[in-house]
Description:
Blueprint: H1 16-56, H2 62-76, E1 87-90, E2 96-109, E3 112-124
Antiparallel strand pairs: 1-2, 2-3
Helix pairs in contact: 1-2
Amino acid sequence: MRSRGLHGRHQQGLGLWGWIVVLGLIAFFATVGIKTVPVYLSHGQMLKALHGVADQSNGESVPQMRGFLQRRWDIDYISQVEPKDIKVIRTKSGGRAFAYDYYVEEHLFYNVYITLYFKGEVMIDNGDS
Length: 129
């Protein structure tokens, strides 16, 4: 007669509740990914636009730079933040930089939302180099 061991009879894989928990976690993280990936892609487009304008700057005024940003916003369909929300600040070294600070709130399901926070600066090249 062959023995199945001490625990052989009780280890048969996931039960119904185990599968429900695993599938629920997979569904939750898939929902979070589906909702947040477009936000990060849009943020990447915004950074690309800021770096493009900052690198091509040649001492333009703030309204001119906002006009350049608006054109890039229109081309890249950036909608989470407006060019008027991008501030031009003085840095400690005396240069200028674009500064952004904004939240994006995405609805996940029922009354559950996820909030993504973005804050940073992009140095503006004044054409001195």
